[in-house]
Amino acid sequence: MIVEFENTVSGDKIIPNLGAKIAAAEMPQVLFWALQGAMRLVENNFILSLTNSHEVALEKWKNTRDSVFCFLGDDEIVARVPGSRTP
User: Fold this and answer.
1) Backbone conformation region of residue 19, classed left if phi is above 0, alpha if psi is from -120 to 50, else beta
2) d(CA 40, CA 12)
3) Most CB contacts within 10 A, which of 17, 19, 36, 61?
4) How far is 74 from 77, CA to CA, in rounded Å?
5) Do residues 2 and 57 make contact, with C-beta atoms less than 8 angstroms apart?
6) Angle at 17 between CA 12 and CA 23, to 5 degrees
7) Phi-psi region of 49 (alpha: psi -120 to 50; beta: other; left: phi over 0)
8) What is the separation, in whole angstroms, between the first and last Cα of the chain?
9) Which pLDDT value is given to residue 21?
């Protein structure tokens, strides 16, 4: 599963030790949220739900890491003809 973190925090907006502060103040809520997720995962036979953002990130990763996939996905170079094959 690909998870992108698109929001960044910089400068004076950075809160030192934020994770520890959240854990200290909201541990029961965090634990409840985690248990809800675990129960949903069990109900789905341990199959993660795919999201649109995951699909977009996966396509982006494929395009940057797989030159053949990138070439085949270039509509200006490759024409897809239904029913045709190239060995």
Assistant:
1) alpha
2) 38
3) 61
4) 6
5) yes
6) 130
7) beta
8) 32
9) 95
Q: pLDDT tens for residues 46-83? A: 998 888 988 888 888 887 888 887 788 788 888 878 88
| Residue labelled with tokens 């494929």 | 62
Distance CA 14, CA 62 (A): 33
59 vs 4: CA distance, rounded Å: 13
Q: What torsion do the CA atoms of 18, 21, 26, 29 make, to the nearest 10 degrees?
A: 30
Nearest Cα residue to 30 out of 40, 19, 41, 39: 19
What does the pLDDT look like over 15-33, one tens digit per residue?
A: 999 999 999 999 999 999 9
Q: What is the pLDDT of residue 64?
A: 82
Distance CA 36, CA 32 (A): 6
